[in-house]
């Protein structure tokens, strides 16, 4: 698919009709470039879908972008966060401080935010190191990933959402559609009075969201399985206009959702073939290093290798749930590493 994504320097606040505006907010130092924040007009003040990265440049872009649409950030009624990631929830707390707005988030992500805000950094670093070691990462990679910069957790929400909940916007019908996968509490938002769907990171027009397992060796969750089910759930809503958080607005959410699902099914098939060809149990790190990524494994910095391993782990977990692969205890038990092989 040819990319229609324009650089942030070419982005402007845009009236997309029906009382909805898009406001691009930069993500400094990130190849995604920006997050598209949406402002929905209402008689009681605008409601934002996401808020952007917590950075002074992002704050100015949000404040001034809203002003360019005729809205005042001090009059924002609420912020609905599609998921807890920093490029979506980072500025929600500052918007609340400026305007008194409420912040709403799905209860699953709200629980994660609470855990993140209570956890001590040293304990988190130790946990990440253990996760990487069990996956088969080397000492240098472990050091690089565990010491990398991580943004502060976002502000805790005032309101928690469940699937089907209506958002508090006078005169509009905005319904919560729980779409776990990218995060446990990711939500899309169906603007029922306009046949539009705010898709967050769940359905994007040119790229696919990161689906990972953290820690890599968890067996109590299946995020890729959740994601695939969520794609079908969104597809069943019909060919709605998609208002995503990145890239560009596009038509027919259902068609794109099914295409993303097919992409992951192909990836799962390739992963089974990779393990069969190996002929021996492999660690998560070894598997990730043999998978196909947009850049070669040797060219991936340690942080991106860590994310690739998480994505490999999510695909392995989905295959494990389907009975296609299994974990094995083969190898030196002192290594305490997780290995996978094709289920016989």
From TrEMBL:
SMART domains referenced in this protein's UniProt entry, alphabetically: Lactamase_B
Pfam families reported for this sequence: Lactamase_B (PF00753)
Alphabetized Gene3D superfamilies for the sequence: Ribonuclease Z/Hydroxyacylglutathione hydrolase-like, Winged helix-like DNA-binding domain superfamily/Winged helix DNA-binding domain
InterPro entries, per the entry: Metallo-B-lactamas, RibonucZ/Hydroxyglut_hydro, Sec-metab_biosynth-thioest, WH-like_DNA-bd_sf
Annotated SUPFAM superfamilies: Metallo-hydrolase/oxidoreductase
Metallo-beta-lactamase domain sequence ranges: 34-246
Name under which the protein is recorded: MBL fold metallo-hydrolase
